[in-house]
Design a protein that fits this description.
This protein is mainly α and 211 residues long. It has 11 helices and no strands. It is globular. The mean pLDDT is 95. The structure holds adenosine-5'-diphosphate (ADP) and nickel (II) ion. Adenosine-5'-diphosphate (ADP) binds next to helix 6, helix 8 and helix 9. The site of nickel (II) ion has 6 residues, from helix 2.
């Protein structure tokens, strides 16, 4: 893509996600960009839209910014200043505002192929060894214990989605469901492989916990 677009957006992201300690840091963003590029190679899609949406996808999240509405205005202004068509700007804004898991629990939203690829890339970063690392890291950040006896937990609802349930329960509540929700074939293959690794981890975790 046009190099200046990428560079300008990266500088914007560095300001917003550069100091994040909840798992939405620059390393996460850069992995999502890379993974999105990899998946995009197997699909007919708009590379410029995918790269920028991946780069900007966590700049409007309420876990990262204090005022998400203002953040949408800011990122709109940024996109309008780049060398993009109005259709591309609309597409990027549409993707980053509708791709999150939390939003999709409330209402299902059909993303276009560009959005589907970025969503798959973001979901892959919640799986595998990195996914395990990020889950414990996030729990530490919000002060959630790493394990709560599942017998003492109420069923998960949209309302208690943010009530602490322990890191391991998050694997069952969300992460293990991701492979079935993947949009692309390439993404699903990788998700299944990463999930299998996590299942081995959880088995070992429980056996050590109960030892
Ligand atoms: P999304 O971008 O789909 O909204 P999140 O921002 O909720 O995803 O999640 C970011 C990272 O934090 C992911 O790796 C996710 O697994 C982890 N995470 C989110 N909620 C929890 C939780 N309650 N316990 C442990 N990890 C969590
Ligand atoms: Ni993300």
């Amino acid at each position: 893509m046009k190099n200046t677009n990428y560079q300008t957006a990266l500088e914007y992201v560095e300001k917003i996600n550069g100091q994040d300690h909840s798992g939405h840091d620059l390393a996460h963003i850069k992995r999502v960009v890379k993974m999105a590029r990899e998946i995009a190679a197997t699909e007919a899609a708009d590379f410029d839209v995918i790269e920028l949406a991946a780069l900007l996808h966590d700049t409007i999240d309420d876990k990262v910014v204090s005022d998400p509405k203002q953040a949408v205005e800011n990122v709109t202004e940024l996109l309008n200043s780049l060398d993009l068509t109005p259709v591309q700007v609309e597409d990027i804004l549409d993707i980053i505002q509708h791709m999150s898991y939390a939003k999709n629990i409330k209402e299902e939203y059909l993303l276009d192929i560009n959005g589907q690829i970025v969503q798959d890339a973001d979901r892959l970063d919640a799986l595998g060894a990195i996914g395990i690392g990020r889950a414990f890291y996030y729990s530490g950040h919000v002060g959630e214990p790493m394990y709560i006896d599942p017998e003492t937990l109420p069923p998960l609802t949209a309302e208690n989605y943010r009530t602490p349930r322990g890191t391991i329960q998050h694997f069952y509540d969300k992460l293990f469901k991701l492979p079935d929700l993947m949009n692309t074939h390439a993404g699903q293959e990788m998700a299944l492989e990463r999930k299998a690794f996590m299942e081995d981890f959880v088995q070992r975790f429980k056996s050590e916990w109960n030892a």
